[in-house]
Amino acid sequence: MTAAFMDLVDVTIVNIAIPAIQRDLGATFGAIQWITAGYALAFAAGLITGGRLGDIHGRKRLFLIGVGGFTLASALCGFATGPDMLVASRILQGGTAALMVPQVLSIVHATFPAHERGKVFGLFGAIVGLGAVSGPLLGALLTQWDLFGLGWRPIFLINLPVGVAALLLGRAYITESRAPRALRLDLPGVVVAIAAMLLVMYPLTRGAELDWPAWCFVTMAAAVPVFAAFVAYERRKARRDGSPLVELSLFRVKSFAAGVAVQLTFGIALGIFFLVWTLYMQLGLGWSALRAGLTGVPFSIAVSVAAGLSVQKLVPRFGRRVLQAGALTMVAGIGLYVWEAERYGMGITSWQMALPLVVMGLGMGLVVAPLTDAVLSDVPREHAGSASGIVNSVMQLGNALGLGLVSVVFVPDGFGRAVADAFTGALGWVAAVLAVVFVVMFALPARPRQHAEDGDADEPDATVPAPAAAAHADADADADADADADAEPALAAR
User: Fold this and answer.
1) How many domains does the chain have?
2) SS3 of 494, please?
3) Per-residue confidence band for 408, with pLDDT thresholds at 50, 70 and 90
4) Quick one: pLDDT at residue 5?
5) How many C-beta atoms surround the C-beta of residue 249 within 10 A?
6) Residues 193-212: pLDDT tens digits?
7) Which region ranges are annotated with the description Disordered (predicted)?
8) Domain that holds residue 220
9) CATH code of residue 265
């Protein structure tokens, strides 16, 4: 949970400090995009690999390596001498975060029985909200205070004591776990997967700055056959030695496949919103970092409250409808935000933004925690690391795509009023993406497996094909066989 908290804080804390970084380092708009998108892309590209490495070499070990690397990369970000060094350090930070973050859900999935995971994911959702609260506030306060004359740099340096504490606590309390059968890392798959994502992300990030030359479209089109080649290779790899980078059989599990599609689309919406929102408040309205950070507090509190309630109280009763209600609630909040921004114009105040932000936060909270629960509910334990890596990777890939699309949907021709007008236009795109999220959610199971009635607990899940159900049964048998040996460590981990 500490790793997930650090990652989320690091993303949101940077958003609020972007204008200060831009002024201090003289960074271009393209460089600013790469400070955020570079992290998200490296994170997304490495998450699947990080999850699989945890399955192979041990989730605790990879967690500790990731935390150590993330802490070092944070120090490099804090002492960056120019935009190029900061972008490179952010990419390294994203790569090391990709080693630690997938282990969080993997350890939960492998340690806790199905009937307890809902509570844990509820806690995870609350931590997501807490991270969302802490990030903007810390970023605003640290930037405003200008500690020791360091300006924005403490937003990265604050990770150093947190990282050291995570290392010490993780080493003492996390129980080691890995896949029950030997797996090998699929290095060619890693290379092809990263290449495919770069073919999409690089032109999206640079296109607007370069006035969309023809090579941007050629490069994005080339990503399609590369993705197809990746899928074909992974299928052959699975048949040959059973150690693909991506366990494609997971996509035959309806809840997993549908949830991944929702994660990707939802990530795009969030990636667009959070960056343009920050630029709107600081470059459009001219607010200080502190005022912008405090303005976001109602949103973050609403996310935290709704995330905690959704898994434990609402989803067991209403199932998929809770997530769909969350998507529609976010759309309603965006509509209210656009109305207020146009009504009050440049004179809008923080308290006038509070209502639409609370509505949006409640909607987001209804989606984030139960979505993770739904995606992983039917995943065999032996593939926990791979599945967790895919879930996180797809969300971050969506976020990176959203950040890249900012240069497409948010193109102000100046500052002040121009930024404010571009912001309301970008919100229309966010609402459209969330409407797509709502539609895609119909493919999710009506209720996650662990929320079935007790009398149905032993029945096969109709949403899981026979091979996946058999794998799930085998994984549970493996878990039961090790239960006695692992009982005391598992209790200690909890």
Assistant:
1) 2
2) coil
3) confident
4) 66
5) 17
6) 888 878 887 787 677 667 77
7) 451-494
8) 186-229
9) 1.20.1250.20
